[in-house]
Each structure stands twice: as structure tokens, then as C-alpha cells.
Amino acid sequence: MTLFFLSLFSVSAIAQPTDEIQSNNIFNIIGIALLGGLILNIMPCVLPVLGMKLSNMLALSSMNSQSIRLQFLASASGILVSFWLLAFSVLILRITGGMIGWGIQYQNPLFIGFMAITIGLFTANLLGLFEIQLSHRFSTFIAQKGDNSTLGNFIQGMFATLLATPCSAPFLGTAIAFALGASTLEMLLIFTFLGLGMALPWLFFAVFPHLISYMPKSGPWMNKVKIVFGLMMLSSTLWLLSLLSPFIGVLLTVIIALLFSIYLLYKIAHIHGKNTVITIIAVIIFLSSSILIVGSMTTKYWVTPTEDNLRWESLDERTIDDYVKQGKTVFVNVSADWCITCKTNKIGVILQNPVYPALQQENVITMQGDWTHPSHKITEYLKKHQRYGVPLTVVYGPNTPQGLTLPVLLDGDEVIHALNYAKGSSNQ
């Protein structure tokens, strides 16, 4: 179990340079950790698990206050225990001299496969389709994880934490960066408040269990709601499967995803009727069309299509020095296929105006560091810039030979300003 949690550090980490971190008071960092943990609840990686929890909440409306309080305390405890295990893992990594980062688990295909299978079982269970023929004991164990038992709620809390790591919130990064370089006591405090922040919604209902009475009463309509939440879980399963493509190939990943989706739709049609499947497909088509329409209406701000025609070179620090001596500007982007924040930066900023045409200029060199797989070279580069994960964006130039580190969440105007400053442009 310890080895499992030793791998829980890298995705979408958000860390600040050491001088910025050290300027923060420990009480300020604790406040940031509390806020960062709270924001994690609305991140897309966590929402499906919260949807499953909300489904359980609807069924709790007929229970007494003591039982309701116990369920929410169990979920909150699962979240806190997960963060304490992460803190414990950091201590082990420090002692053994291992690499410390936030979310390295997504560099491990075994972990990704485990999470995909588990969330897939959650999906099937939530949709009432759990008929996978495993051993009786294992099937019973898995099937109970989505119910209203105390253990089920505890494990839901733990899995919410595991899914949160690739969707780190901006405030989370500063706290994580401080914690990974702080004393043991300070680190435990920060991880505790990260967990408390994420657990706040559940603790709120534990303190005020009577609020559940305002939730809609359970009834046949809940079967439809469960399908919605099940589809949210399905999206998480497919996303996890997509993370396997760098390891097992795109074709095999697509085949697995299609077979799993077809199986679920077939079982939904068998249990809930063909009309339900038709409705699901219609909703998917509607949402996809809406996204395309909205995208076409925002061409003023977005390059269409968002195609990457930049001449990316592999990250090489010695080459960077040579380019800077030649008076060129070097734009370094370190990311990973499983990093949602990285994809947001690339699609929403790097491949859009005004950054995209600026990076295509002849005097600008673009370099890419890929941390999808473990890489000692890239890990050392991250450490040099006091980061504990991706994304990391650095701009070099005659005016910034040591590199200018940009914020984790990129902004087009800030990137342009950094490029101009790095090359010593008067237009700053």
C-alpha cells in the first residue's frame, strides 16, 4: 500500500520559485492550502466523484441526522487520510532520496490502468450494470464501494483525492511547493489543511445534516439522475484510458474505449430501454454541436483551427545557451500528455493570438520538454527552476539569459510581455 502511494506526485503541479515561496508566511500558506483544497472540488477530475456522492445524498434524505452526519464524516475522513498518506510518502521519499513531485503516478501505466478499471467499475455500479464475473468475494467488495455504507463513503473520499492530482487548482501549487520544501511539521500542517479544504463541503453537511431535508425526495426519477452521474464517471474512465495511449498505442486505446462504451450503452438499453440510449446519444451530439458553434463564434479570440505548426525542438539547456548568445529568444514549454493544465495552456494561449504568431517569428526558438514518461533530464530541469511538476514555461533571451519563469496558468499578454522583455525589445 505504501508503494502505491509513493507514486502519487507529478501531474499538473503548480509550484512557485523558491524566493516567492519563502516570502510567504506559514499562516498565509495554510490559508492558501485551505482555499486550494476547496477549489479542487469544482475541478473536472473531481466532479464525477462528487456527482456520485450527490446521488448518494439524494438517497440520504430519509435517514436520521446521526446517520447522515456519519456518511459525510466518512467521506471527509477518506479525503484527509489520502492527504496524510501523501505527506507520509513525501517523508519516505526525502529519507530515501527519491524524486519529490506532485502526481508522478500518471507516469506509471499500471497506476493509470488500475484507476481506469476502478472508475470503470464505479461507472458500471452507478448505472446498475455491475455484472462483471469476478470472484464472489472481489465482486462483492467492489460492488459495495458505491453504496451508502461508511466504508463506501470513505473510499469515495479517497478516490476523489486521487483523481484531483491532475487537476490542480492555481492556489494549490503554491501550498504544495512550500510543503515539499518545508520542515516535517510545516508539511504535515499544509497537507492537513489541503485535505480540510477539499473536505469542507462534506464537513459542512456533517455539521448541518438537517440541510439534507431540503434535497429532493428519492423516487423513480433518481434512476435518470444516476444515469447522468454514471455518464460523468464514464467520461473520467475514458479520460484515464486516453492517458494509456503513450504507453500502449493510440489504436489499442481507442479499441478498448469503444468496446467499453458500446458495452455500457448495450447494457443501458437492456435495463433502461432503447429510448434512454437514444436520449444519451442525442445529448452527446447536442453538446458536441454546441461546443463547435460556440467555438465558431469566438474566432475573434481563437485561431481556427488550433493546429500546432510550431517548430518544436527537444529541450536541451546547452543549446539554449547557444541560441541566447546568438541573440535569439527561446520559449521552453515543459508538459505531459496527462497534464490538463498543460493542455489548457497550449490550446487556450500558446496556439492562439497573439502568442501563436509571435512564436512563429524567425528569431524565436520553441523547445518542448515531454514529461509523459519519467525523464531524469527534465526532472533536473524542473528542480533547477524550483518546480515539482508540470506545466513549466520559461523564456530565455539576451535580456534574460538565466530564464524568466512564467505563471503556471498562462496569459497571452503576459507571454508577449515576457518575449519582448527577454529579447530586450523597447516595446515592453
TrEMBL record:
<feature type="transmembrane region" description="Helical">
    <location>
        <begin position="151"/>
        <end position="181"/>
    </location>
</feature>
<feature type="signal peptide">
    <location>
        <begin position="1"/>
        <end position="15"/>
    </location>
</feature>
<dbReference type="GO" id="GO:0017004">
    <property type="term" value="P:cytochrome complex assembly"/>
</dbReference>
<feature type="domain" description="Cytochrome C biogenesis protein transmembrane">
    <location>
        <begin position="29"/>
        <end position="242"/>
    </location>
</feature>
<keyword id="KW-0201">Cytochrome c-type biogenesis</keyword>
<feature type="transmembrane region" description="Helical">
    <location>
        <begin position="110"/>
        <end position="130"/>
    </location>
</feature>
<dbReference type="InterPro" id="IPR036249">
    <property type="entry name" value="Thioredoxin-like_sf"/>
</dbReference>
<keyword id="KW-1133">Transmembrane helix</keyword>
<dbReference type="Pfam" id="PF13899">
    <property type="entry name" value="Thioredoxin_7"/>
</dbReference>
<protein>
    <submittedName>
        <fullName>Thiol:disulfide interchange protein DsbD</fullName>
    </submittedName>
</protein>
<dbReference type="GO" id="GO:0015035">
    <property type="term" value="F:protein-disulfide reductase activity"/>
</dbReference>
<dbReference type="InterPro" id="IPR035671">
    <property type="entry name" value="DsbD_gamma"/>
</dbReference>
<keyword id="KW-0472">Membrane</keyword>
<dbReference type="InterPro" id="IPR003834">
    <property type="entry name" value="Cyt_c_assmbl_TM_dom"/>
</dbReference>
<feature type="transmembrane region" description="Helical">
    <location>
        <begin position="25"/>
        <end position="51"/>
    </location>
</feature>
<dbReference type="Pfam" id="PF02683">
    <property type="entry name" value="DsbD_TM"/>
</dbReference>
<feature type="transmembrane region" description="Helical">
    <location>
        <begin position="72"/>
        <end position="104"/>
    </location>
</feature>
<feature type="transmembrane region" description="Helical">
    <location>
        <begin position="187"/>
        <end position="212"/>
    </location>
</feature>
<feature type="transmembrane region" description="Helical">
    <location>
        <begin position="247"/>
        <end position="266"/>
    </location>
</feature>
<keyword id="KW-0812">Transmembrane</keyword>
<keyword id="KW-0732">Signal</keyword>
<dbReference type="GO" id="GO:0045454">
    <property type="term" value="P:cell redox homeostasis"/>
</dbReference>
<feature type="transmembrane region" description="Helical">
    <location>
        <begin position="278"/>
        <end position="303"/>
    </location>
</feature>
<dbReference type="GO" id="GO:0016020">
    <property type="term" value="C:membrane"/>
</dbReference>
